[in-house]
Amino acid sequence: MALPATKVLVAQKDTTNADLTVKATGYQWKWGYDYISGEGEGLAFISTLDSSHRQMSDSGDVSNAPVDYLLKVDNPLVVPVGKKVRVITTANDVIHSFMVPAFGIKQDAIPGFVRDTWFRAEKVGDYYGQCAELCGKEHAYMPIHVKVVSAPEYTAWVAEQKKKAAARQDDPNKVWALADLLPRGEKVYAANCAACHQANGKGAGPIKPLDGSAIVLDEDHTKQIQILLHGAAGGAMPSWAQLSDTDLAAVASYTKNAWSNKTGQVVQPAEIVAQRGK
């Protein structure tokens, strides 16, 4: 009995000869996925809870909650069926844990450390998990969605994602007009900020409002940029440094001109570049 059991335990920890390697980075309160090797190498994106689910949770009315309530994300981790997938885990701020019960995996994601695990999905479909380590006030809103697709579908998805990634590689020295930045900033805000600060910018409870905020209205853009890059309030406001320079400039510009904040100010990507690392 001991010998076959030992073989199984060893196999569970054997992450070698993977067809695909993905790094999963835990953030408060989202996951970052980087495709390190295999088909899709070089792809990277952030995965956050769908904003409509967060709004439903905040409302207290879950009578019409969908079956994937608090599990739906904007960008799922997509992998091919039947392939060995190695998941390297780490974290950017506090300890998180990457858990997907259907695959029998649970691996802590620890700042400054690299751990790994692996799985092989045998059926096409949607598989869900959650951060399994208490990581702060938004811990309940940090789901994991793994979308398993066929090999041809995966190849097509990779090609489409690479096209999108190329389109997002903006020149950080480009000078944008406010009218061009605002639609992009609105999308970034809806995907990443509205869950806490609310769509109307009024905040909720301890979450500070952005509508009328002195920092947002200030002509000195560095104050708001530093908060976006490094977070604030002991992590209650997380860092968004993983977003692109143009996305950060767009969302800052949007908040400076949305609601009653009609400042006419434009934050340029070059300003974000200048503040990184400070």
UniProtKB/TrEMBL annotation:
Cytochrome oxidase subunit II copper A binding domain location is 17-160
GO cellular component assignments = membrane; periplasmic space
Location in the cell: Membrane; Periplasm
Q: Which PROSITE patterns match?
A: COX2 (PS00078), COX2_CUA (PS50857), CYTC (PS51007)
InterPro entries, from UniProt? CcO_II, CcO_II-like_C, Copper_CuA, Cupredoxin, Cyt_c-like_dom, Cyt_c-like_dom_sf
Q: Which keywords belong to this entry? A: Copper, Electron transport, Heme, Iron, Membrane, Metal-binding, Transport
Domain (Cytochrome c): give its ranges: 180-259
What are the recorded GO MF terms, alphabetically? Answer: copper ion binding; cytochrome-c oxidase activity; heme binding
Gene Ontology BP terms = ATP synthesis coupled electron transport
Give the transmembrane ranges.
Answer: none
Has UniProt tagged this entry with the keyword Repeat?
no
Q: Which reaction does it catalyse?
A: 4 Fe(II)-[cytochrome c] + O2 + 8 H(+)(in) = 4 Fe(III)-[cytochrome c] + 2 H2O + 4 H(+)(out)
Question: Cross-referenced PANTHER family, in alphabetical order?
Answer: CYTOCHROME C OXIDASE SUBUNIT 2, CYTOCHROME C OXIDASE, SUBUNIT II
Stated family = Belongs to the cytochrome c oxidase subunit 2 family.
Full protein name: Cytochrome c oxidase subunit 2
Please give the organism.
Melaminivora alkalimesophila
